[in-house]
Sequence to fold (593 residues):
Amino acid sequence: MVMPTIRETLAAWSRQISERYESLSMRLRRLKDPAHVDLAGRIGLFIPATTAILIIVLILTFLWYESMPILTSDVGGPAIFLEPTWDPNRDLFGIGVFIAGSLVCTGIALGVALPVGIGAAIFLSEFCPSHLRDVLRMIIEMMAAVPSIVYGLWAYTVMVPWIRDSVYPAVSSNPLLAWVPFLQGPTNGYSALAGGLILAIMLLPTVVSVSDDALRSVPRSLREASLALGASESETALKVVLRAALPGVGAAIVLSLGRAVGETMAVLMVTGNSLTIPYSLFDPCYVMTSIITNQLGYAFVFPLWRSALFAVALVLMLMSICFTAIAKVLIWRGTRIGAVV
Amino acid sequence: MYEYRIEVKDLNTWFGEKHVLKNITCYFEDNSVTAIMGPSGCGKSTLLRSINRLNDLIPGFRLTGQIFFAGSNIYDPDRNVYELRKRIGMVFQRPNPFPMSIRENLTFGPRLHGIKDEDELERIVEDSLRKAALWDEVRDQLDSPAVHLSGGQQQRLCIARALSVDPPVLLMDEPVSALDPISAGKIEDLIVQLKKEYTIILVTHNVQQAFRVSDQAAFLYMGELVEFDKTKRIAVAPEDPRTEAFITGRIG
Fold:
């Protein structure tokens, strides 16, 4: 009998190991023949899938727990969500003022970013020559890489003076616009408008690139079908391509909604952070993220103050979830007929 | 005076440097089916898409020669291409219904061209579906998504959609090659029905199908028009050896 060499022994071992492993995986496959259940896939992927839900639930629980003291106390209570006066020294914790500020800023931001961004995406995907398109896409994606604090500094040094010295004088001296209630002044430039505009600029790259991807994944055959019926290129883009890409464009809206409500630094630097409800675009305002950032450092002085800040965060989180849910429902309603993206 | 509704004269086309169609001259008779056959890549789709100027949108496409439609050159610089495409309908290789309801698929074209009256639109929907032999199958589900129909139904819906703007000419680019034999048979029957009212130009690489449904046939090979005559004549006695090779299955 010949002694096996080391090499042969190793080969034999590895064969044994692979056979054993194979038999295990085969057993798993055959577990419920003929319609076997892929156990590894089911269990293995169930865990990561539920992790996301678990994290959201945990965060909500934690915010709820931390904001309980103010929501159950005599000076606070659920009414703080609607009250407009915030003065912790006098036990006034009305966070309605921040909700109003956030809503106004987010509204301005979306009102500017969505039309401009979706328009830009339609141009990029439908009308732009391909070499120019690549360059533009790259520049737009670079916009997303700019840190928000840099946007904030730019808005602070350029946009705020521009609103104070150019926009407001132009609006208030124009007889057609001067009487409009939400365009009243005076202003020092720090305003809801500045916050909304800088937010809009920050949202643009997301809106443009997500919408552009969605529009470009609409099959060419749909465009040709529309053109062959005698539609012009712009009619095709609006009535066929944009419509087919609606879920993808909706994803852009949802993503930007979340970012707009949650953005902190740039907005903090230009909204003036005044504890008043903005009735005009030129009024200063105070958004929810800003009050948390500004006051968390010394809010430990009164336990209720700290708890009220957590209540602000809870509202922020719920608002974010609601916006996303509403956007999803709207998109779903808009595409029940079926879309390709 | 031009005798036929569509007449192609000395047509040459290029994609970039590639000379796709070479000196094509032919005509398409009214109320009949003309089959354009040939092996893949011979330029049959290019010829078809030149007739409704759908190639114009492809970067690098160039064309010389003329195509006359109802007596005027469609490549005239001041020709209204949208009006032209309205009058020359097209059905594509793969069913491509819009991701809308069946009804909206059929009202899309008429609405584009300014028809707003709901009764009128309703009449167009029913008419087009009847002509495409689809009315009985979908009359109760006009508001359901078109993409839920089967492949053959989708293709007939696409034919109905092309008919909804009432074009005298219908271009069909291998309309059954993506379908199962039964659906394909229905569409072939439909083509024979439709030729009573429409001028149909059918691109196909299926010789048998061309012989079954067409009145005239054109055989394209490597961008050249090799043979163009009555289908019966070509089927029985092809003049050119290349045509014979193709219809007997030796090339293609």
Notes: DSSP finds twelve helices and two strands in chain A. Chain A touches chain B at residues 130, 219, 221-222, 224-233, 235, 239-240, 243-244, 335-340 (CB under 8 Å).
